[in-house]
Amino acid sequence: MRDRTTLNLVPFVSVDHMMKLVLKVGIEEFLKELSAYVEEDFLRWEKFDKTPRVASHSHDGVIELMPTSDGALYGFKYVNGHPKNMKDGLQTVAAFGMLSDVDTGYPMLLTEMTILTALRTAATSAVVAKYLAPENAQTMAIIGNGAQSEFQALAFKALLGIKSLRLYDIDPSATEKCKQNLAGFGFEITTCTSAEDAAQGAQIITTVTADKQNATILTDNMIGSGIHINGVGGDCPGKTEMHKDILLRSDIFVEYPPQTRIEGEIQQLDADHPVIEMWQVMNGTVPGRRDQNQITLFDSVGFATEDFSALRYIHDKLKSTGLYENLDLLADPDEPRDLFGMLLRCEKKLAGEAA
Predict the structure, then answer these.
(1) Looking at the structure, do residues 237 and 145 belong to the same domain, yes or no?
(2) Could you tell me if 214 and 274 lie in one domain?
(3) Is 120 a domain residue?
(4) Which of 79, 108, 281, 282 is 20 to 30 A away from residue 340, measured at CA?
(5) pLDDT tens for residues 90-106?
(6) Which residue is catalytic, options 235, 251, 316, 338?
Protein backbone atom coordinates (compact mmCIF):
# COMPACT_ATOMS: atom_id res chain seq x y z
CA MET A 1 0.00 0.00 0.00
CA ARG A 2 1.37 3.42 -0.93
CA ASP A 3 1.92 6.07 1.75
CA ARG A 4 -1.34 8.01 2.19
CA THR A 5 0.58 11.28 2.43
CA THR A 6 2.19 10.85 -1.00
CA LEU A 7 -0.69 9.45 -3.05
CA ASN A 8 -0.71 12.67 -5.09
CA LEU A 9 2.81 11.88 -6.32
CA VAL A 10 2.92 9.57 -9.33
CA PRO A 11 6.22 8.00 -10.44
CA PHE A 12 7.08 9.21 -13.95
CA VAL A 13 9.60 7.48 -16.22
CA SER A 14 10.85 9.94 -18.82
CA VAL A 15 12.52 9.06 -22.11
CA ASP A 16 15.89 9.77 -20.48
CA HIS A 17 15.09 7.49 -17.55
CA MET A 18 13.80 4.76 -19.86
CA MET A 19 16.99 4.78 -21.91
CA LYS A 20 19.12 4.65 -18.77
CA LEU A 21 16.99 1.83 -17.37
CA VAL A 22 17.36 -0.27 -20.53
CA LEU A 23 21.12 0.28 -20.56
CA LYS A 24 21.47 -0.38 -16.83
CA VAL A 25 19.71 -3.73 -17.17
CA GLY A 26 21.31 -4.47 -20.56
CA ILE A 27 19.29 -4.51 -23.78
CA GLU A 28 19.16 -8.27 -24.23
CA GLU A 29 18.57 -8.94 -20.53
CA PHE A 30 15.82 -6.30 -20.53
CA LEU A 31 14.16 -8.09 -23.45
CA LYS A 32 14.43 -11.45 -21.66
CA GLU A 33 12.91 -10.08 -18.45
CA LEU A 34 10.16 -8.24 -20.30
CA SER A 35 9.41 -11.37 -22.35
CA ALA A 36 8.84 -13.30 -19.13
CA TYR A 37 6.20 -10.75 -18.05
CA VAL A 38 4.52 -10.93 -21.48
CA GLU A 39 4.42 -14.73 -21.36
CA GLU A 40 3.16 -14.74 -17.77
CA ASP A 41 0.22 -12.52 -18.71
CA PHE A 42 -0.63 -14.62 -21.77
CA LEU A 43 -0.79 -17.60 -19.41
CA ARG A 44 -3.45 -15.83 -17.32
CA TRP A 45 -5.29 -14.50 -20.37
CA GLU A 46 -8.75 -15.27 -19.04
CA LYS A 47 -8.29 -12.86 -16.11
CA PHE A 48 -8.08 -9.80 -18.38
CA ASP A 49 -10.69 -7.40 -19.64
CA LYS A 50 -10.36 -7.51 -23.41
CA THR A 51 -11.57 -5.15 -26.08
CA PRO A 52 -10.26 -4.05 -29.48
CA ARG A 53 -8.35 -0.81 -29.15
CA VAL A 54 -10.24 2.45 -29.52
CA ALA A 55 -8.97 4.00 -32.74
CA SER A 56 -9.40 7.41 -34.34
CA HIS A 57 -8.38 7.15 -37.99
CA SER A 58 -7.42 10.01 -40.26
CA HIS A 59 -6.10 10.19 -43.81
CA ASP A 60 -2.48 10.19 -42.63
CA GLY A 61 -2.57 7.97 -39.57
CA VAL A 62 -4.30 6.73 -36.46
CA ILE A 63 -4.43 7.60 -32.76
CA GLU A 64 -5.35 4.74 -30.42
CA LEU A 65 -6.12 3.98 -26.80
CA MET A 66 -5.33 0.47 -25.56
CA PRO A 67 -6.85 -0.35 -22.14
CA THR A 68 -7.03 -3.54 -20.08
CA SER A 69 -7.25 -4.75 -16.48
CA ASP A 70 -6.55 -7.98 -14.61
CA GLY A 71 -8.89 -6.97 -11.79
CA ALA A 72 -6.11 -5.67 -9.53
CA LEU A 73 -4.29 -3.32 -11.89
CA TYR A 74 -5.55 -1.22 -14.79
CA GLY A 75 -3.31 -0.10 -17.63
CA PHE A 76 -3.67 1.85 -20.83
CA LYS A 77 -1.47 3.15 -23.62
CA TYR A 78 -1.93 6.16 -25.88
CA VAL A 79 -0.20 5.54 -29.21
CA ASN A 80 -0.25 6.93 -32.72
CA GLY A 81 0.80 5.55 -36.09
CA HIS A 82 1.65 8.15 -38.75
CA PRO A 83 3.96 6.76 -41.48
CA LYS A 84 4.11 10.18 -43.19
CA ASN A 85 5.97 11.55 -40.16
CA MET A 86 9.23 10.07 -41.43
CA LYS A 87 9.27 12.63 -44.26
CA ASP A 88 9.21 15.41 -41.66
CA GLY A 89 11.87 13.89 -39.44
CA LEU A 90 9.30 12.74 -36.85
CA GLN A 91 8.64 9.35 -35.26
CA THR A 92 6.07 7.12 -36.95
CA VAL A 93 4.98 5.94 -33.51
CA ALA A 94 4.87 7.90 -30.25
CA ALA A 95 3.33 6.63 -27.05
CA PHE A 96 2.89 6.96 -23.31
CA GLY A 97 1.12 4.78 -20.76
CA MET A 98 -0.28 4.60 -17.25
CA LEU A 99 -0.72 1.86 -14.66
CA SER A 100 -3.31 2.29 -11.89
CA ASP A 101 -4.57 0.59 -8.75
CA VAL A 102 -8.07 -0.79 -9.40
CA ASP A 103 -8.96 -0.65 -5.69
CA THR A 104 -8.52 3.14 -5.40
CA GLY A 105 -8.37 4.23 -9.04
CA TYR A 106 -5.16 6.11 -8.27
CA PRO A 107 -2.35 6.03 -10.86
CA MET A 108 0.81 4.16 -9.84
CA LEU A 109 2.98 4.89 -12.88
CA LEU A 110 3.16 7.26 -15.85
CA THR A 111 5.79 6.43 -18.43
CA GLU A 112 7.03 7.10 -21.92
CA MET A 113 6.14 4.19 -24.18
CA THR A 114 7.68 5.04 -27.53
CA ILE A 115 10.85 3.14 -26.67
CA LEU A 116 8.94 0.73 -24.44
CA THR A 117 6.48 -0.15 -27.24
CA ALA A 118 9.36 -1.10 -29.52
CA LEU A 119 10.76 -3.31 -26.77
CA ARG A 120 7.43 -4.98 -25.90
CA THR A 121 6.61 -5.59 -29.58
CA ALA A 122 9.94 -7.31 -30.10
CA ALA A 123 9.60 -9.24 -26.84
CA THR A 124 6.14 -10.48 -27.85
CA SER A 125 7.40 -11.55 -31.29
CA ALA A 126 10.20 -13.58 -29.73
CA VAL A 127 7.97 -15.17 -27.06
CA VAL A 128 5.56 -16.32 -29.77
CA ALA A 129 8.42 -17.61 -31.92
CA LYS A 130 9.54 -19.88 -29.06
CA TYR A 131 6.34 -21.84 -29.72
CA LEU A 132 6.13 -21.51 -33.51
CA ALA A 133 9.57 -21.14 -35.10
CA PRO A 134 11.44 -24.13 -36.56
CA GLU A 135 13.66 -25.86 -34.02
CA ASN A 136 17.23 -24.50 -33.94
CA ALA A 137 16.43 -21.68 -36.37
CA GLN A 138 19.50 -19.48 -36.79
CA THR A 139 18.71 -17.14 -39.70
CA MET A 140 16.06 -14.42 -39.76
CA ALA A 141 15.12 -12.06 -42.56
CA ILE A 142 13.96 -8.60 -41.50
CA ILE A 143 12.05 -6.82 -44.25
CA GLY A 144 11.55 -3.21 -43.24
CA ASN A 145 14.57 -1.79 -41.43
CA GLY A 146 13.03 1.16 -39.62
CA ALA A 147 12.69 1.95 -35.92
CA GLN A 148 11.52 -1.54 -34.86
CA SER A 149 14.08 -3.64 -36.72
CA GLU A 150 17.00 -3.65 -34.27
CA PHE A 151 14.72 -4.48 -31.35
CA GLN A 152 13.30 -7.46 -33.25
CA ALA A 153 16.77 -8.73 -34.07
CA LEU A 154 17.99 -8.50 -30.47
CA ALA A 155 14.86 -10.11 -29.03
CA PHE A 156 15.20 -13.09 -31.35
CA LYS A 157 18.89 -13.36 -30.49
CA ALA A 158 18.17 -13.19 -26.74
CA LEU A 159 15.32 -15.72 -26.72
CA LEU A 160 15.97 -17.99 -29.71
CA GLY A 161 19.69 -17.64 -30.39
CA ILE A 162 19.34 -16.13 -33.88
CA LYS A 163 22.84 -15.58 -35.27
CA SER A 164 22.34 -14.52 -38.89
CA LEU A 165 20.31 -11.61 -40.27
CA ARG A 166 19.25 -10.87 -43.83
CA LEU A 167 18.13 -7.24 -44.11
CA TYR A 168 16.09 -5.44 -46.75
CA ASP A 169 14.31 -2.11 -46.98
CA ILE A 170 13.14 -0.12 -50.00
CA ASP A 171 15.33 2.65 -48.58
CA PRO A 172 18.94 1.40 -48.59
CA SER A 173 19.90 3.99 -45.98
CA ALA A 174 17.53 2.32 -43.51
CA THR A 175 19.24 -1.02 -44.08
CA GLU A 176 22.65 0.58 -43.61
CA LYS A 177 21.45 2.23 -40.38
CA CYS A 178 20.20 -1.11 -39.07
CA LYS A 179 23.42 -2.88 -40.05
CA GLN A 180 25.59 -0.28 -38.33
CA ASN A 181 23.46 -0.24 -35.17
CA LEU A 182 23.71 -4.02 -34.84
CA ALA A 183 27.38 -4.28 -35.76
CA GLY A 184 28.54 -4.81 -32.17
CA PHE A 185 26.02 -7.48 -31.18
CA GLY A 186 27.56 -10.58 -32.72
CA PHE A 187 25.34 -11.07 -35.76
CA GLU A 188 26.36 -12.22 -39.22
CA ILE A 189 24.58 -9.59 -41.32
CA THR A 190 23.76 -9.72 -45.03
CA THR A 191 22.25 -6.72 -46.80
CA CYS A 192 19.86 -7.76 -49.56
CA THR A 193 18.63 -6.17 -52.77
CA SER A 194 15.00 -7.30 -52.57
CA ALA A 195 12.49 -8.88 -50.22
CA GLU A 196 12.78 -12.10 -52.21
CA ASP A 197 16.56 -12.05 -51.79
CA ALA A 198 16.19 -11.48 -48.04
CA ALA A 199 13.83 -14.46 -47.66
CA GLN A 200 16.30 -16.86 -49.25
CA GLY A 201 17.70 -19.23 -46.64
CA ALA A 202 15.81 -17.70 -43.70
CA GLN A 203 13.90 -19.94 -41.29
CA ILE A 204 12.12 -16.91 -39.81
CA ILE A 205 10.84 -13.93 -41.81
CA THR A 206 9.88 -10.75 -39.99
CA THR A 207 7.99 -8.08 -41.90
CA VAL A 208 7.86 -4.71 -40.19
CA THR A 209 7.06 -2.02 -42.75
CA ALA A 210 5.28 1.25 -42.07
CA ASP A 211 3.19 2.36 -45.06
CA LYS A 212 -0.51 2.70 -44.25
CA GLN A 213 -1.79 0.73 -47.22
CA ASN A 214 -2.44 -2.75 -48.53
CA ALA A 215 0.97 -3.84 -49.76
CA THR A 216 2.47 -7.10 -50.97
CA ILE A 217 5.80 -7.29 -49.18
CA LEU A 218 5.73 -11.09 -49.29
CA THR A 219 4.46 -13.00 -52.31
CA ASP A 220 3.48 -16.64 -52.25
CA ASN A 221 6.55 -17.85 -54.17
CA MET A 222 8.87 -16.51 -51.42
CA ILE A 223 7.50 -18.81 -48.73
CA GLY A 224 8.69 -22.40 -48.65
CA SER A 225 7.68 -25.13 -46.24
CA GLY A 226 8.73 -24.92 -42.60
CA ILE A 227 8.98 -21.13 -42.45
CA HIS A 228 7.81 -19.05 -39.50
CA ILE A 229 6.50 -15.61 -40.51
CA ASN A 230 6.43 -12.85 -37.93
CA GLY A 231 4.04 -10.31 -39.48
CA VAL A 232 4.41 -7.09 -37.48
CA GLY A 233 3.70 -4.25 -39.91
CA GLY A 234 0.02 -4.86 -40.67
CA ASP A 235 -1.76 -3.28 -37.73
CA CYS A 236 -4.77 -1.25 -38.87
CA PRO A 237 -7.65 -1.50 -41.36
CA GLY A 238 -6.43 -1.26 -44.93
CA LYS A 239 -2.80 -2.02 -44.03
CA THR A 240 -1.39 -5.45 -44.88
CA GLU A 241 1.96 -6.87 -45.99
CA MET A 242 1.27 -10.31 -47.46
CA HIS A 243 -0.39 -11.88 -50.45
CA LYS A 244 -3.61 -13.64 -49.51
CA ASP A 245 -2.33 -16.98 -50.85
CA ILE A 246 0.33 -17.08 -48.10
CA LEU A 247 -2.40 -16.85 -45.49
CA LEU A 248 -4.33 -19.70 -47.07
CA ARG A 249 -1.24 -21.96 -46.85
CA SER A 250 -0.36 -21.05 -43.28
CA ASP A 251 -1.52 -21.88 -39.79
CA ILE A 252 -2.37 -18.44 -38.44
CA PHE A 253 -1.79 -17.47 -34.81
CA VAL A 254 -3.19 -14.28 -33.30
CA GLU A 255 -3.43 -12.34 -30.06
CA TYR A 256 -7.12 -11.35 -29.86
CA PRO A 257 -9.23 -12.39 -32.88
CA PRO A 258 -11.84 -9.57 -32.73
CA GLN A 259 -9.03 -7.02 -33.08
CA THR A 260 -6.87 -8.96 -35.52
CA ARG A 261 -9.76 -9.55 -37.92
CA ILE A 262 -10.13 -5.77 -38.18
CA GLU A 263 -6.46 -4.80 -38.30
CA GLY A 264 -4.29 -7.80 -39.19
CA GLU A 265 -3.38 -9.73 -42.30
CA ILE A 266 -6.54 -11.80 -41.83
CA GLN A 267 -8.70 -8.80 -42.74
CA GLN A 268 -8.12 -10.19 -46.25
CA LEU A 269 -9.91 -13.46 -45.36
CA ASP A 270 -13.46 -14.50 -44.60
CA ALA A 271 -14.63 -13.51 -41.13
CA ASP A 272 -14.87 -17.17 -40.07
CA HIS A 273 -11.45 -18.26 -41.37
CA PRO A 274 -9.90 -20.39 -38.60
CA VAL A 275 -7.16 -18.86 -36.47
CA ILE A 276 -5.42 -20.02 -33.30
CA GLU A 277 -5.11 -17.84 -30.19
CA MET A 278 -1.61 -17.69 -28.75
CA TRP A 279 -2.70 -17.94 -25.13
CA GLN A 280 -4.08 -21.40 -25.88
CA VAL A 281 -0.78 -22.45 -27.46
CA MET A 282 1.18 -21.19 -24.46
CA ASN A 283 -0.98 -23.02 -21.93
CA GLY A 284 -0.77 -26.25 -23.92
CA THR A 285 -4.43 -26.43 -24.93
CA VAL A 286 -3.67 -26.16 -28.66
CA PRO A 287 -0.45 -27.21 -30.43
CA GLY A 288 1.82 -24.61 -32.00
CA ARG A 289 4.40 -25.96 -34.43
CA ARG A 290 3.54 -29.58 -35.18
CA ASP A 291 6.12 -30.57 -37.79
CA GLN A 292 9.06 -29.32 -39.83
CA ASN A 293 6.99 -28.59 -42.95
CA GLN A 294 4.30 -26.45 -41.31
CA ILE A 295 4.16 -22.76 -42.26
CA THR A 296 3.30 -20.71 -39.18
CA LEU A 297 2.23 -17.07 -39.30
CA PHE A 298 2.01 -14.81 -36.27
CA ASP A 299 -0.41 -12.11 -37.37
CA SER A 300 0.79 -9.57 -34.83
CA VAL A 301 -1.14 -6.34 -34.37
CA GLY A 302 -0.19 -5.61 -30.76
CA PHE A 303 -2.66 -6.02 -27.91
CA ALA A 304 -3.27 -4.14 -24.67
CA THR A 305 -2.18 -7.01 -22.41
CA GLU A 306 1.34 -6.71 -23.86
CA ASP A 307 1.47 -3.03 -22.87
CA PHE A 308 0.07 -3.99 -19.47
CA SER A 309 2.95 -6.47 -19.09
CA ALA A 310 5.45 -3.77 -20.01
CA LEU A 311 3.93 -1.31 -17.54
CA ARG A 312 3.98 -3.97 -14.82
CA TYR A 313 7.63 -4.74 -15.54
CA ILE A 314 8.68 -1.08 -15.43
CA HIS A 315 6.76 -0.50 -12.20
CA ASP A 316 8.53 -3.46 -10.60
CA LYS A 317 11.90 -1.98 -11.63
CA LEU A 318 11.32 1.43 -9.99
CA LYS A 319 12.57 0.70 -6.47
CA SER A 320 15.75 -1.09 -7.52
CA THR A 321 16.80 1.50 -10.10
CA GLY A 322 15.46 4.83 -8.84
CA LEU A 323 15.18 5.89 -12.48
CA TYR A 324 12.03 7.98 -12.18
CA GLU A 325 10.78 11.26 -10.77
CA ASN A 326 7.63 12.01 -8.81
CA LEU A 327 4.99 14.17 -10.49
CA ASP A 328 2.51 16.12 -8.37
CA LEU A 329 -0.26 14.89 -10.62
CA LEU A 330 -3.31 14.36 -8.40
CA ALA A 331 -5.39 16.77 -6.36
CA ASP A 332 -5.64 14.92 -3.04
CA PRO A 333 -6.96 17.24 -0.27
CA ASP A 334 -6.80 16.18 3.37
CA GLU A 335 -10.59 16.33 3.39
CA PRO A 336 -11.72 14.56 0.19
CA ARG A 337 -14.90 16.69 -0.08
CA ASP A 338 -13.02 19.98 0.23
CA LEU A 339 -11.46 20.30 -3.23
CA PHE A 340 -12.47 23.98 -3.46
CA GLY A 341 -10.75 24.60 -0.13
CA MET A 342 -7.45 23.61 -1.75
CA LEU A 343 -7.84 26.58 -4.10
CA LEU A 344 -8.58 28.95 -1.21
CA ARG A 345 -5.55 27.76 0.75
CA CYS A 346 -3.39 28.17 -2.35
CA GLU A 347 -4.76 31.70 -2.78
CA LYS A 348 -3.80 32.58 0.82
CA LYS A 349 -0.33 31.14 0.30
CA LEU A 350 0.21 33.15 -2.86
CA ALA A 351 -1.01 36.30 -1.12
CA GLY A 352 1.44 35.68 1.72
CA GLU A 353 4.32 35.17 -0.69
CA ALA A 354 3.41 38.37 -2.54
CA ALA A 355 3.38 40.34 0.73
Answers:
(1) yes
(2) yes
(3) no
(4) 108
(5) 988 899 999 999 999 99
(6) 235
